[in-house]
Amino acid sequence: MIVTPPQFNLSTRAILSMALALILMSIAIPQKAFATQKPRVVSMNLCTDQLVLLLADPEQIISLSYLSHDERSSVYAEEAVAYPTNRGLAEEVYILKPDVIVTGTYSNWTASSMLEQLGMRVERFEPAYQFSDITANIKAMGELLHQSDKADQIIAEFDARLADFQTDPAVQPRAALYAANGYTSGKSSIAHHILVAAGFRNIGAELGYDYGAKLAIESLLMTSPDLIVTNPPGFGHAKAEEMTRHPALDYFQKNMPTEVTTNKNWVCDTPLVLDAVAELTTLREAMARPLTQKEGSQ
Amino acid sequence: MKQTSLLLMLSLLIFLLGAVSVVIGPADVTLGASLTALIQDDGGPLTIVMREIRLPRMLLAIFVGFSLGLSGAAMQGYLRNPLAEPGLLGVSGSASLGAVLALQTGFAATAFYILPLSAITGALLCALILLVISGKSRSILALILSGVAVSALAGSFTSLVLNLSPNPWAASEIMFWMMGSLANTSFNHIWLALPLMVIGWTSLLLTGKAIDALTLGEDAAASLGINLRRLRLQVIIGTSFAVGAATAVAGAIGFVGLVIPHILRPLVGSHPSRLLLASGLGGAALVLTTDIIVRVIVPSQDLKLGVIMALIGAPLFLHLIFTTGRKES
After folding, report:
1. Smallest Cβ distance to A251: which of B48, B106, B109?
2. What is the DSSP letter of B28?
3. CA-CA distance, B115 to B197, in Å (whole number)?
4. What CATH class does B64-328 carry?
5. Residue A216: which of B46, B172, B300 has the nearest Cβ?
6. What is the DSSP pairing of strand A183-185 with strand A100-104?
7. Is any Cβ of chain A less than 8 angstroms from the Cβ of B170?
8. DSSP letter at A182?
9. Which are the contacts of A181, defined by CB distance < 8 A and separation ≥ 6?
10. Which of A136, A168, A170, B274 has the most Cβ atoms closer than 10 angstroms to its Cβ?
11. Chain A contact probe: residue of B167, B178, B298 with most A CBs at under 10 A
């Protein structure tokens, strides 16, 4: 029985070479797939949902956050209904095996950290505090999803449209943002920049607030605002929202045609914030007439 | 002390506390300027602040306090139990549940009087449950414990309803409905609650003669010509309307009806009837004081009245349990 050792050697070599081939293939196949296929994505946050819907090809989207279907806060809700949703739980996202997971910096922290530990790629997007953050986020999402051309085109359109707004009109009415619990936004917020781009002055910034702060009704009244922008009431009922409709606030709204509220265009870092600017610009032009008269008479 | 001079002193106290209440607020204005703006329209925002924000808050504190103090005195007189109080017996908590159900189902939005009437219905149901229990057992503590149970039940249902609300802010309002607050009240709240409170006050103030007679025992009272059924109805309707309407606009504020009759009882002597009006005024003074304290401690936040009220009331409640228990045994 002298033949046994070479036989053994042969089979060992065969096994080794097969194993090597398998390892090489397993590295080579995904790399090849990565080169031709764009990454498939799961979004766990309303605002990253919007960026994904704006930029990704339909086959890239595996799942969006459940809020993406909400007509009142999601600007692309109509497109979003075609996709499944998640509630930001680690296990439901993990079994979807996406190439990349996107979420906000301040949302689903526990779940997204766990997914990272499990070896998933997680990309976190900062909320936008100014218009340049919006274009930066669009650019970053474009690169992530291999959609840079599309992103660049959207950014160019956004910048061109933004430049068209007259931000320094002769009469700048003073507006206060007044959300649930009396929260008013300061100068580091998209809401502030929407007001400013529409030719208003933001009372929250006048008061020296950076991101924002809670403002008592009487403190708000003492600033004599020309306009109070509230949030639209939610479903059910909340005293937090009831307070933004305190009858004392009506004394400043007497000259206003209707109650002015924010809408879904204000919520996320999408090019549609400029629709909000356009709506407010129309309002400001309508307000400017009586205000000019008032200041002229003084 | 003479009854009239006590009532006069309490009224004076309410007047002074009311004046302090309207000059306290986050807006930075001087005492003189704010009082001037309250009386004389300055055409600017300060008058609106004084008349539309601070004045209704001060008035509502008085009305809510009056309702709670008076209800406490009437319940204690009727049940001949110094521990009886709308907050402890679950009347306030049940009123909160009624109000929360009306608000979250949207029923309250259908007509303006639905909200206070739902709260009153909640209070009435609680009163009826307690009546059945107190009819079965003569023990003072059995009634209190049943009240605690009803109160816990109403509280958990309130939390459940608010947690199930589609509104993201609703769950944080559990605190308001359980501890009460007068923040951000307007004259709308007063017009909503006051007429119903007045019905409750009238019903309770008219029980005076009957609850005096009741100190002699039920049989003696009946032989004096007191209609005990009518008295029971008056106390239940009166308490439910006063406490229900107050809770609908200010949340459940406990301990007022316990503390005030206890403090005033030595001053009015052994007539429960004299305690009624005095406790109403005392309750008004206590809620005004508490509403001043919460604004002095944290001016810009909405510290709930129940926090301060329990700090005052809970030790007294413990003390009363000890002394009452001793008397019983």
Report:
1. B48
2. -
3. 13
4. mainly alpha
5. B300
6. unpaired
7. yes
8. G
9. A214, A240, A243, B169
10. B274
11. B167
**Taking a C-beta distance cutoff of 8 angstroms, is the pair A185, A212 a contact?**
yes
The CATH homologous superfamily of the domain defined by A41-163: Nitrogenase molybdenum iron protein domain (3.40.50.1980)
Instruction: Copy the structure tokens of residue B238.
Output: 């009166």
pLDDT of residue B271: 87
DSSP string, B236-305: HHHHHHHHHHHHHHH----SHHHHHHHHHHHHH-S-HHHHHHHHHHHHHHHHHHHHHHHHHHSTTS---H
Q: Which band of pLDDT confidence, cut at 50, 70 and 90, is reported for residue A24?
A: low
Location of each CATH 3.40.50.1980 domain in chain A: 41-163, 174-297
d(CA B60, CA A102): 50
Query: In chain B, which residues have their Cβ closer than 8 Å to the Cβ of A237?
Result: 103-104, 106, 108-109, 165, 167, 170
Q: Could you give phi then psi for residue A135, rounded to 5 degrees? A: -65, -35
pLDDT tens digits in sequence order for chain B, 329 residues long? 688 999 999 999 999 999 999 999 888 788 888 889 999 888 888 999 999 999 999 999 999 999 999 999 999 999 888 888 999 899 999 999 999 999 999 999 888 899 999 999 999 999 999 888 877 776 777 888 889 899 999 999 999 999 999 888 898 899 999 999 999 999 999 999 999 999 999 999 999 999 999 989 888 999 999 998 899 999 999 999 999 999 999 999 999 999 999 999 989 987 899 999 999 999 999 999 999 999 999 887 889 999 999 998 889 888 887 886 665 54
Chain B residue numbers touching A247 (CB-CB < 8 A):
52, 186-188
CB A175 within 8 A of CB A225: yes
Q: What's the half-sphere exposure (Cβ side, CA atoms, 13 Å) at A212?
A: 17
Pairing status of strand A41-43 against strand A100-104? parallel
Sole residue written with tokens 């319940």: B75
**CATH class in words for A174-297:** alpha beta
DSSP state of A229: E
pLDDT at A121 over 90: yes
Name every chain A residue with its beta carbon within 8 A of the beta carbon of B48: 221, 248, 251
User: B82 and B324 in contact (C-beta within 8 Å)?
Assistant: yes
Quote the strand ranges of chain A, DSSP E. 41-43, 61-65, 85-86, 100-104, 122-125, 174-178, 183-185, 201-202, 212-214, 227-230
Q: What's the length of chain B?
A: 329
Residues for chain A: how many in total?
298
Q: Amino acid identity, residue A138?
A: I
Q: Cα dist. B281→A287, B57, B63, B199, B271 in Å? A: 49, 17, 9, 17, 17
The ipTM of this complex is 0.83
Q: Does B33 touch chain A if contact means CB atoms closer than 8 Å?
A: no
